[in-house]
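2024-03-11 09:14:02 INFO worker-7 job=invfold-0412 stage=load source=structure_tokens
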């Protein structure tokens, strides 16, 4: 249903390094790029993510209550995405762990303060 999401940035190159690293762990790379924005994903694949200077020319700001969730293939990948995010300028919003039966997730913010998580939804025991 969701084709892609975009997040604002005030420093495209700093943000690009963060998303290049996180998206590499998800086995996707850049699929579109202009001086205004970069989009990561796979054409015809799942939802992509874009990083953009706001089109209205105003500074980017963080949406209160907005979060992008990145689906992982297993718990180890959740752990790796979280570690990669923090190693590339992200900040901790909740270390990897089981939040409730069948839901394993890690929460972090990108260098601009946008909130993301990596998660795995499993069948509870």
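2024-03-11 09:14:09 INFO worker-7 stage=emit residues=125
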């Amino acid at each position: 249903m969701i084709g892609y999401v975009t997040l604002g940035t005030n420093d495209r190159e700093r943000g690009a390094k963060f998303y290049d690293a996180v998206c590499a762990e998800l086995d996707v790379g850049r699929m579109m790029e202009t001086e205004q924005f970069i989009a990561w994903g796979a054409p015809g694949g799942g939802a992509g993510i874009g990083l953009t200077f706001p089109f209205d020319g105003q500074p980017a700001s963080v949406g209160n209550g907005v979060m992008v969730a990145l689906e992982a293939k297993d718990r180890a990948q959740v752990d790796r995405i979280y570690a990669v995010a923090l190693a590339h300028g992200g900040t901790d919003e909740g270390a990897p762990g089981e939040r409730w039966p069948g839901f394993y997730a890690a929460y972090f913010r990108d260098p601009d303060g946008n909130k993301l998580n990596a998660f795995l939804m499993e069948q509870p025991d």
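2024-03-11 09:14:09 INFO worker-7 stage=report msg="The chain has a mean pLDDT of 95."
2024-03-11 09:14:10 INFO worker-7 job finished
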